[in-house]
Amino acid sequence: MDFDWTDDDVRYRAELRAFLQEALGRDWRGYDKTDHGAYKAAAGEFCRKMAEHGYLTQSWPREYGGQDASAWRSAILSEEIGSPYGEPRGSQYMNVNWIGPAIMRFGTPDQKAYFLPRISAGDVTWAQGFSEPDAGSDLASLRTRAIRDGDDYVVTGEKIWTSHTAIAEWIFLLVRTDADEKRSKGISVLLVPMDTPGLTVHQIPGVAGEGAFSNPVFTEMRVPVANRLGPENGGWAVVRYALAFERIGVAHYRHAENQLNAVARAANARGLGDDPAVQAKLGEAWEAIEAARLLYYRVVDLRAKDAPPSADTSIARVAGTRAYQLVADAADLVLGEYGLEGVGRSRFNLTAGITSGTTEVQLDQVATKHLDLPRPHVGA
Questions:
Q1: Which of 108, 124, 140 is the last residue of a domain?
Q2: pLDDT tens digits for 9-18?
Q3: At what angle do helices 276-304 and 312-335 cross, to 10 degrees?
C-alpha cells in the first residue's frame, strides 16, 4: 500500500507554496491584532487572493463556489498555511472549515444564496457564540434564551471566551428555544449580525492577548426567525456536524512542528543541542507531533470516503493539544518561561486545551463514542 503523496499532490503543494510566498511575502510575521481594522483588512485581502486563485473553498461543491477538490487537498492547504505566526486567513478559517459546510447542510435556499457566495469570495467574517459563563464547553447546558415573538426571537443571555468579535460581521449563535427541555434538546442556531441592537461585547483581558476573547451580552435582542439555521429545537444536530469539521479544520500539528523546529535551532545556537534533557524533551514533542499528524490523516481519510462524523475528530484534537503543550514545555526548558514568544509562539499554546471544546470534553467523547464506555451517573 502506498502512503506517499501523488505526483499531482506534490505539484499542488509546490504551487501553493509559491502562492503563499507571493501573497504573504518571505518575511511575514503575523498580523498586528491590536489594530483590529488593519488586521481585518489584511486578512480579508489575503482571503480574497486565495479565492481568486481557487484555494479558499476548493473542497466545497462547485455549486457553492468550490472545486470539488478532495479532502486531501484541503489537508495539504492546512499544512502549508500553518504558519508559526498565526492563521493568515484570520477568522475566515472558520467560514471555510465549518460555518459554510453547516449552512450547506442545514441552510434554507435563501441562506445558502446569501452566505455561501460571500464566504467563498472571502468577503465576510464570523464569530462563534457557543460557550457560556455557567456552561463552558458543556454546550448542552447553555442558558441563553430565545423566546419566539411572532416573526422574531427575543434573545437574552451571554456568551464567554468568544474570539474574533472585534472583526466579526456575524455570529453563529447557540440559543435555547425550549426552556422545558433539558441538555441537548431545545437548542437552536441563529445567524446574527454583530450590529444587531441589544448585542453588547465586553473584551476580556488575559494572557492570550488583548482582545483575544470577549463576553457578548444579549439584552432582548430581536433576531428574525428567518435567521435560524436548521429546525427549531434541532440545533444540536447542526452544532455536532459543525464541530466535527472545526476540530481538525486547522493542522495544529504543523503549527507545533514549526515551533519545535525553531526551539531546536535555538537549542543548537545556545550549545544545548547535545544536552540529554533537552534532547529528551525535543524527542517527546516530536513524537507527539507525528502522532497528531497520523490521527489527523485518519480523519481526512474518513472524510475523503464520505464517512459520517465520528469520535476520531476528538482523538485527533486531543493529540494536537498534547503536541502544543509538549512543544511549550521544550521551549521553556531551552529558552526559559514564555520562551516561544521569541520564536513566533502562537499564544494558542496557552489555550489549546480550551478552544473547540476542552480536552476533558474531547476525552468524554472518546470514552463514550469511541470506546463505548458508559456515562457516569450524576452524583455517583
A1: 124
A2: 999 999 999 9
A3: 160
Which DSSP string do the residues of 131-159 spell out, in sequence order? --TTTTT-GGG---EEEEETTEEEEEEE-
- How crowded is residue 209: how many other Cβ atoms within 10 Å of its Cβ? 14
Considering the domain architecture, whether residues 140 and 197 belong to the same structural domain is answered as yes
Ordered DSSP codes for 29-79: ----TTSHHHHHHHHHHHHHHHHHTT-TTTTS-GGGT-----HHHHHHHHH
In DSSP notation, 76-137 reads HHHHHT-BTTB-TTTTHHHIIIIIHHHHHHH--HHHHHHHHHHHHTT---EEEE---TTTTT
**Considering only CA atoms, which of 5, 3, 162 is closest in space to residue 70?**
5
Range of the domain at 99: 7-124
Other Cβ atoms within 10 Å of 70 Cβ, number: 16
Q: Count the Cβ atoms, other than its own, within 10 Å of residue 59.
A: 20
Residues 6+ apart with CB under 8 A from 59: 66, 67, 68, 69, 70, 71, 73, 74
pLDDT of res. 349? 52
pLDDT at 138: 62
Catalytic residues: 246
Q: Which of 207, 232, 257 is the last residue of a domain?
A: 232
Rounding to the nearest 10 degrees, give the CA dihedral for residues 365, 366, 371, 374.
Answer: -30
CA 48 to chain CA centroid, Å, is 20
- pLDDT per residue over 110-150, tens digit each? 999 999 999 999 999 999 999 888 765 566 778 899 999 99
**Cα of 90 vs its chain's centroid, Å:** 10
User: Does residue 362 fall inside a structural domain?
Assistant: yes
358-369 residue pLDDT tens: 555 556 665 655
Beta-bridge partner residues of 188: 175
